[in-house]
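Notes to self after the call with IL:
- keep both proteins in one doc
- input above output, always
- annotate only the second one for now

Protein 1:
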Amino acid sequence: MPSDLVIVYHRQPYEEVEENGQTVLRENKSPNGIVPTLKSFFGTAEHAAWIAWKLADDPANPDFEKVVEISDAHGTYSVSRLPLTHEQVSSFYHVSSKEAFWPILHSFKEKFNYDPVDWPTFREVNWAFAEAAAREAAQGARVWIHDYNLWLVPGYLRQLRSDVTISFFHHTPFPAADMFNVLPWRREIVKSLLECDIVGFHIPRYAANFVSVARSLFDVDVVKRETVAAELVSDGTALSERSAPTLLSFEGRQVAVSSASVGVAVDFIEERATDPQVQADAKEIRKGQGERRLILSVGRTDYTKGGVDQLESFERVLADNPDLRGKVKLMHVSVSANRNMSAYALTQTGIEETAGRINGRFGTLDWQPIALISRAIPFDDLIKYYLAADVAWITPLVDGMNLVCKEFVAARTDGDGVLVLSEFAGAAVELNSAVITNPFSHRSMDQAILQALEMPEKERRDRMKELRRVVGKYSVAAWGAEQERQFSAAIARKELADA
């Protein structure tokens, strides 16, 4: 059945689990996160489809189910699963996307690795996604493509289906031209993105960077520029923009450039945070700390997250403030990524070695300054620690958005707690009532955590009140509503142009 909404995303919209020797497709337990949010769009369509890849030992195996029909809380929809070999996944995702694109998107030029990239395979996989989307889409359908590993899909899809409305959303930062143009495939990538009707980013800075890149490579005109909302402009954060381009003209077509940050499922998080059992468990955690202050840091093991830099800041603070020894504990959650990739393995090793050195240097028989956790924590357990922590310390070197800091704020239904946030996280544009810090500055990092630990209760509550207002306003539901508005406006522009 043709679909009037097609979502193209590398992940499947469910969990595959083994039960009694059989593979079962199970709905995601939590409505928090990008996959459940995208699925909520199915309610705006008569019939929807989802395009994803699935690992296959033999893509030609006739028993491989390329299309499955799913019925869950979001309705009935089709999932087109593209069978990719281990070699294709390694080339398309682990090499091209993670070793070449990821460092450039996050402005780590020194980690860019061009040599192993197999560009023909990247094209081949993107073409397969485009073909699947073209096959599923009804006449005039909305097609929503997600993230940088599918950069070429819009251009291919436009060749196959000129009738559809194409939107692309970046979940990463987008750097300025002098960084992005390190990529030797820059023209092909940007030309594909300019075939979209909408190109979306988290914040105006990334949108402005994209336009600067596009104009460095092609004859692109800015048709419309809009003033950024005053509450999203702060002199104390590095990523603020006072105005941003919102409509481009390219080869006789108009391309909208949107800025809308992904948020969190605030209602769901608040519901879990106010659950009596969750609150009782949080009190037990708090009780177990005694008089010690609890600092919580949560992130993935990635060189962009600045894990070692944060630990070294904590070491300096303990060295320079002997009175804090034994009175503060850092729970550092750094979830291991793919250890088969050397960059991530080195980062994990660095975190483990630094944490071990600090514990060895300052620890006593009854106090270890750092609890290092390298495995994923169930979301309900994480909420307990959000509630128990005195401070959330979120200091990536660069981050497209960062939802952990928003989860922490949403969970603090008690109105207390302090958020220390890197000014290079996209979320800092909205959450400028946090204690904003520069993770590249030792002085800024050290003073920020000390300020958080010493902050009077009234200031804590005043800041948290404003943070909770902003997180509630820019929720994941608000992000979804903005994407729907962008689709409606793009369809209206096309109808006007065709009239």
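Protein 2 (the one to annotate):
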Amino acid sequence: MNNKAARPTISDVAKAAKTGKTSVSRYLNGEQNVLSDSLRLRIEIAIAELDYRPSQMARGLKRGRTRLIGLIIADITNPYSVDVLSGIEAACREKGFTPLVCNTNNEVDQELHYLDLLHSYQVEGIVVNAVGMREEGLNRLQQSALPMVLIDRKIPDFACDVVGLDNTQAATTATEHLVEQGFEAILFLSEPLGTVNTRRERLNAFYATLERYPGIVAVNAEVPLHEADLMDNTLRQFHTHHRGMRKAVISANGALTLQVARSLRRIGLHWGSDIGLLGFDELEWAELAGVGITTLKQPTWQIGYAALQQVVKRIEGGNDSVCEQVFSGELIIRGSTAR
């Protein structure tokens, strides 16, 4: 026998209050001024006694509003994503929306599954931070016609609002810092570029900056996140190939910086004395690691907050032309790039 009590319905409230469902609906929808004082009191008592809680989803669908925002995140374990989510969640609370978070884990099947799921939940808009999203998922997004804002990544040939870091300015600042610190050979290290515009923009700014300093050696390499042997070999070769020069590595994101730090430990190099290290994204452990790691901090919370504000603007009918909001990064200098 199932002891779980059935959830009370609007009919139960109407019966207990000795009235019709229409009057209860009016009460729930804030139209209490059309009800008599005694009827209002009876409905209030019936709701309290039955512990009736209306289904927000059902009420929303009836009015054509669910107040749900879909969030598609490439990798929820990434500290960047966690901070962005925090900003989105704060803006959701302020604007009266509920976020539905989908972590695709960079898997194409999951991307497509979640896109369909968000449609079935009738979300009112979508915020996408999916650096790993494949073409099939991107095409499905384009066809969805939902109000949408992209964080940190543009989709080729798709006009859509984007919020993110000013990558050109940030990479220029980072590179110039290393030049000022007297480094003579600099390696820009990223995950495979693919079609990810953020990585390309940072790499292009790195090369454009060093074109102004012809004496400095500029190199770049692409290493997948969890290929430790390839990372070790890349760093070892860079170090030995430029023997006798002051060398530094720029890491294109926080997850990669952790792998670079591990690799340097494995091959016996110390950041700060043997080699310089500068990483995009501030990391909680960066100040504690050896002499500290210099980072290019993104205002990730603000980026998430602004993205949600922008998607709500679109939901509410804002039809300004597509915009790109960029935020400045901040260089936090520590011992890994000291002279």
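Annotation: The CA atoms of residues 172 and 209 lie 6 Å apart. The chain has a mean pLDDT of 87.
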